[in-house]
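Design job #97: recover the sequence.
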C-alpha cells in the first residue's frame, strides 16, 4: 500500500476474538486487511470505552460496520484526489476508506474534540499518512473535496445541505442509509432541487461481497 508504514512498524496488538475477520473480508480489504484487523481491535476496546461503539456492536463490527463501509470504495471510480467524511465519529466510513484508498487524501471532519482525539490516535496507530483529522462542522469548514461521505449523521434533507457545503462543484456525495433510504430520498428531493443536486438515487454497494449489500444514497453537487 503506497504511502503507508508497513504493518510491522505499526506494532498492532493482537485482535480481540470477536474482532476476527469473517470469510470474505480478505476479498474486500485485500492488502489492507491487517489495518482493518487492528482498527477492529481499537474499536472493540478504546472505541467502546469512549462510547463511540456500543458494547452490543462489538460482535457485529465486521459485518455491520467495517465491511458495510469498505464497499463504498466500489462506487468511487476513478479514484478521487480528496474525500471528506462528514461527522466521522469513530472513523466510519472515512478511516476504512483511507485504508483501502492510500492515494486518496481523506479528511475526517468531526466537531467533537474527544472524538477527534480518538481519530488522531487511530491514524497514528494505523500509520495512515493520507488521513487528516479536522475538528469542525461541515457548515463552517473551509473544505471542498471531490467526494463527501456520511453515515448516521443526519436525515438526508439536512445532510444534503452539509454535504454540498464541503463538496466541490460536480463532486459526489455518498450517504450510507438503511432500508428506508427510498422514502428518505423522496422527502429530501425538494431540498436537493433547491441545492441544484443532480442524479440523486439509491444504489447498492458490494453486491456479491457483503450480505446485505450496503444501501447508499448517491448524488452530485451542482
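Job complete. Output follows.
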Amino acid at each position: 500500500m503506497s504511502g503507508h508504514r508497513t504493518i510491522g512498524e505499526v506494532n498492532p496488538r493482537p485482535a480481540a476474538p470477536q474482532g476476527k475477520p469473517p470469510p470474505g473480508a480478505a476479498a474486500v480489504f485485500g492488502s489492507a486487511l491487517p489495518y482493518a484487523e487492528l482498527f477492529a481491535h481499537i474499536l472493540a476496546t478504546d472505541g467502546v470505552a469512549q462510547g463511540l461503539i456500543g458494547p452490543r456492536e462489538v460482535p457485529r463490527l465486521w459485518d455491520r460496520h467495517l465491511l458495510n463501509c469498505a464497499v463504498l470504495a466500489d462506487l468511487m471510480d476513478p479514484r478521487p484526489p480528496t474525500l471528506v467524511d462528514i461527522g466521522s465519529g469513530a472513523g466510519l466510513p472515512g478511516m476504512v476508506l483511507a485504508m483501502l484508498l492510500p492515494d486518496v487524501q481523506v479528511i475526517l471532519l468531526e466537531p467533537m474534540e474527544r472524538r477527534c482525539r480518538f481519530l488522531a490516535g487511530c491514524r497514528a496507530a494505523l500509520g495512515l499518512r493520507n488521513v487528516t483529522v479536522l475538528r469542525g462542522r461541515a457548515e463552517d469548514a473551509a473544505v471542498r473535496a471531490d467526494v463527501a461521505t456520511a453515515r448516521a449523521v443526519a436525515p438526508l434533507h439536512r445532510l444534503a445541505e452539509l454535504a454540498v457545503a464541503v463538496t466541490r462543484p460536480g463532486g459526489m456525495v455518498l450517504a450510507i442509509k438503511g432500508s428506508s433510504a427510498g422514502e428518505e430520498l423522496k422527502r429530501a428531493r425538494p431540498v436537493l432541487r433547491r441545492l441544484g443536486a443532480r442524479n440523486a438515487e439509491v444504489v447498492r454497494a458490494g453486491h456479491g461481497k457483503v450480505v446485505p449489500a450496503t444501501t447508499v444514497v448517491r448524488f452530485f453537487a451542482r
